Structures are given as C-alpha cells and as structure tokens.
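pasting for ref. prot 1 ->
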Amino acid sequence: MRDAFMALDHSKSGAVTQDDFKVFLTHWGVKTTEEKFSELFNYFDADKDGEISYKDFLGTVGQEMQPDQGCYWRRDMARPTRIKSCKSDHCWHTA
C-alpha cells in the first residue's frame, strides 16, 4: 500500500494533493469535469483537509486492496504486467 501511495504522491510532499491526483488521472487517460474531479478527490480525502493523507488512502483505497500479499492489486483483477512501450516506471496494465 505504501508503494501505491508514494506513486500517487507525485510532488513527494507526503500527501496526495489535487495537482498530484490530476497528474495521476491524466496519466491514465481519465477525463472528468471539475465537478466530478472534486467529487472523486473529496471521496478519497476522508478527513476533508484538502489532501489525501496515507491514513485517508488506507481508509478508502486500502479497503479494496490485497494488503496480505504486500501488493496493491485488487483480488478480482488479473495480475498486472509492465507495458513495455511506456517509459514511466508507473505504467501497468492487466494481461
């Protein structure tokens, strides 16, 4: 879970800011309106302090993940593999 959180914390500030979250969504090709973006960000910002802390992350994303294997992949999805054409260290897709 820590690795997933750190990958989202693009600014390396110790919390996922709105700008970090926008970088993540843009990287994965997710397009939203500002209203939907705010709604999504606010869902993950559980304590409503304007950033997604690691505690917020564990309480929202962590509930859906598989921490017992030390990975951040959902149980109901195929194991991800590296996209060879992407130059980023954070490009993954399911096989």
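and prot 2 ->
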Amino acid sequence: MMNDFTNDNSHISTIWLIRLVTGKGLRVRNLYKIRNLSGGTVHTLATLPNNSYVCDCCMGLNIGIPCRHYFKML
C-alpha cells in the first residue's frame, strides 16, 4: 500500500536515508531531528550541498513537494 502521508509514523531509517544520499554520490551537509509538537514522532531531515534536502518521510522524493518536516526545519 502506498503512503498517503496522513500517518506521520511512516518513515525510513536514518541509516537508509544516508545510504540513499551517498549512493547518489552526494554528501550530507546537516542532519536535523524534527520532533512533532505532541512529542511523539521524530523524523530525520538531511540537507545537501546543492541546497536540496531529503526527509525520511520521502514525501519530496515520492510526489515532489516539500513535506511539513522541511517547513518545520526552516
């Protein structure tokens, strides 16, 4: 079943996130831990040297629009 991004608990591991980035020949500039305001869910967001990002929710990779975790990081 495809993630419709209504479940904020759905994410990939931080290790897998870093493997995705480095597997494309990129490097991680910064890693951010994004915590839900209720304190429950934690997501990892990696910024890259080319001013892009990858979040462990994969919303940006799947549908091409910034996720809520990216806006919280800003």
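The chain has a mean pLDDT of 85.
DSSP finds three helices and three strands in the chain.
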